[in-house]
Amino acid sequence: MAEAQVFFGDELLERYVTQVVSSLNPPPRPGSLVVLRSEPGSVRDASLLGDLAALVLIRTGSIEQPTAPMAANAGTAAVAQPVTSASAAMQADVWLKMMSRTCEEAGVPLIVVPSFGDPGQIAEEIRQAFLKELKSASARLHAHLMTILLDEGLEGLVEEVSQALNRPVVVETADFKVLASRNMGATPVSQQNTVAEQAAELMKRLQRAHARGVELPQTPIKSGRRLILPVVLSDVVVGYVSAMVRGGDDVDAVTEYLQPATLATMVEFNQRRKDGSVFAVTQKSLLKDILSGRSLSASDQERLERTYGFDLCDGLLVFAVEANLVSQSSSAPKILSWSDEGFITAEVEGTHVFVLAHNAKDGKKIAEQAASLVQKIKKAVAEEGREVRVQMGVARLADTVLDLPDAYREARQALVIGSMVHGDNEFVTSYGDLGIKRLLYLMIDHPELDRFYEENLAPLETYDSEWESELVPSLRVYLEHGANLNSAARALFIHRHTLRYRLEQIADILKCDIDSQEVLLNLQIAYLIADMKGIARRSVTP
Fold first, then answer.
1. Model pTM greater than 0.90?
2. I need a surface site. Which of 7, 282, 289, 469 has the fewest CB within 10 A?
3. How far is CA 231 from CA 216, 227, 270, in A?
């Protein structure tokens, strides 16, 4: 480069170079340094030069030393001889002057480098030299941002990045709690699941590449108008650095500034991890991933088990919980959001999921642990001066961490079926106790269930409505007591003969044998359908 000539642009070194390329096709992004052979026609469209950092032309033999064929003697072939005429030199000068004017009009610095060898090799050497400089510049930027972080903290770092990029910037934890921001809020709830899933996929790609001995550059996540780079510690996403971008922005240029900023924030996250705040967030993120059915690496699974003591227990209990505030005000928020400090919990699909270690030697039954958890939740909310109504679905005992996804689905299904049966009332429903309700749930919207109910119970409801009798509730109690006449009569506070008379009425209306086991089973199923579809509740609604 010592013999290079600057044809235009005295402030070349003050320009920021985003990349080095050796072609104008496809059009390079703004801030690119383009290295080309100086062949006539190599730059046909001056409009492509508008946003370049600089244009470097390597002199080729056709311009530096034009040639023309000599006159051939008899019996000899024509050979090329150097053209030493002034016209060839003038043509080269005219072409370079034309390129200089083109670059001047576009405001792009022009450098012409003599070729002392193969022009392609010279161009590649120049490109590699600038790429090395770009890496050094990124390292210097990282060091600069690190100094700001140490001197002014995370807020100072975000302020610096925001001013440099001239756009809003925010730093969040893995569960999208804002740590520092400049004119930008947390990731919208509607985008959080998508961002978390894309970050998980990005981590898998990086881990696979690392296993092969390949280091991939960290690519950003685009969500809405946000450009997001995950912050990674020990192969776990612990946070995000985001900048707002517009449609015409150079995403690559923004990314190249966000990358060293993200590296700098790792110091802050590492310190918070030592303090425990980020550590808890990362473990909760792992718990959410495995509950959602995502696979974890062996190291992540081991870390999760050690954190919560899952490797030392006899099994794992999973509870799906919905908690609503008890309030007379219709404007009060329905869904409760409480501090889960002291709980092993994660939010999956909008539902709070609790995972507890079960030890057989403690002698506690699953139902007892469920009741204890309900009381802990109510106590935590009561300390804030509020009262809560808890609904809970309980899964069967899971043997290991790998069984947690199935256990979550069981707890979730128990919660849904419990809400169908109990409405807004409190309940604790165990998946193991659902019985045939699990099968009915799978076909709850099938029209055959409605027909089955209409055939077995609807005639009795019509009769009760017309004659103000109590056949439907009497039959329910009779079935709940195992078709025991004496026990059911005592529960209804009526004489056994009175109940027997009602059963005969029922048999006459339904035209069935009320003592048949099959009939009794059909009636039980009809009541379950009514409960799960809320038919009984709708029938008493004014």
1. no
2. 469
3. 15, 13, 10
